Amino acid sequence: MSTEFVPGGAVQLSASQYQLRTLGENDVSQAYVDWLNDPEVNAYLAVRFSTQTMESTKSYVRGHDNRTAFLFGIFAEQGTRHIGNFSLMVKPNHEVGILGVMVGDKAYWGESVVQEGRTAILNYCFGPLALAKVHGACYSDNRPAIYNYRRQGWQLDGIQKKHVLSKGRYVDMVNFAMFKEEWLSRND
Amino acid sequence: MTEIELSAAKEVLAKAFDLSQLDIPEDAALDNFEPWDSLGHVQVLFLVEAFLERELETEEAISIVDLKTLQEALQ
The CATH number of the domain where A30 resides is what? Predict the structure, then answer.
């Protein structure tokens, strides 16, 4: 594991209370699969449209090459408790990253997991990965997610009106961006 | 910001966080006021919608990040 970018190599990052590290097939547990099938957890995730299994989840994990596709497990309790994931897809030709998050362990909802984890990943994106922009998005009815983006200073990067179906209603997709210069200036 | 408008905005935050208006600082913002967490923010937006008696547009909901923008949303 490295804190630097070694193409294809596993990565480990430290957030203040959590560890983020490349997720492997061995990290796929029944609890992880159960999160993906939990309507409260998957309410804003594409995985809700199909039932997930151990094999489908392992296949998803295998799909990350640590070159342009990264999957970071979020671990609490000194790295022993898997509580969620960050996914990061990189478009190297454009120096853009697309970041997503799922906190599956409900005991950690409302905690600082997303803020702390995103801070570590943004440092990795704008440091070792040398990206210029990181993009994130959420449904407009996912207000805790909007809070998390705004609290961290992400800029609005466009609203796609009535773009997704959520809980039987058409809602907006809200796009956010963090730019390298903005992030570095905020963290000087 | 008039006293009445400031009071309305502070009242929303006080209700959302179960505090007194006196506990709401003038510079309260979601990145500097500890009670203003993600779950509290959901409650803030709910109370704004109750005040306005309508659902917030996405742009309005995103704009609320501190006492000043909250006051603007209440107008």
Answer: 3.40.630.30
ipTM of the complex: 0.91
According to the model, what pLDDT value does residue A1 have? 67
Specify if A145 maps to a domain.
Answer: yes
| B30 → closest Cβ in A151, A159, A172 | A151
Calculate the CA A46 to chain-centre distance.
13
CATH code of the domain occupying B3-74:
1.10.1200.10
CB distance from B42 to chain A under 8 Å? Answer: yes
Backbone φ and ψ for A14, nearest 5 degrees, come out as: -110, 125
Bridge partners of A71?
Answer: A87
Q: Cβ of B56 under 8 Å from any chain A Cβ?
A: no
DSSP conformational letter for B24: S
Going by C-beta distance under 8 Å and a sequence separation of 6 or more, which residues neighbour residue A47?
A36
**CA pair distance A81, A77, nearest whole angstrom:** 6
Low-confidence ranges of chain B (pLDDT < 50): none
Mean per-residue pLDDT pooled into runs of 10, chain A (188 residues) = 84 92 96 96 92 97 97 95 97 98 94 93 97 98 96 96 96 98 89
* Total domains in the fold of chain A: 1
**Is A159 in Cβ contact with B59 (below 8 Å)?**
yes
Sequential DSSP letters for A104-167: --GGGTTSSHHHHHHHHHHHHHHTTT--SEEEEEEETT-HHHHHHHHHTTPEEEEEEEEEEEET
Q: So where are chain B's domains?
A: 3-74
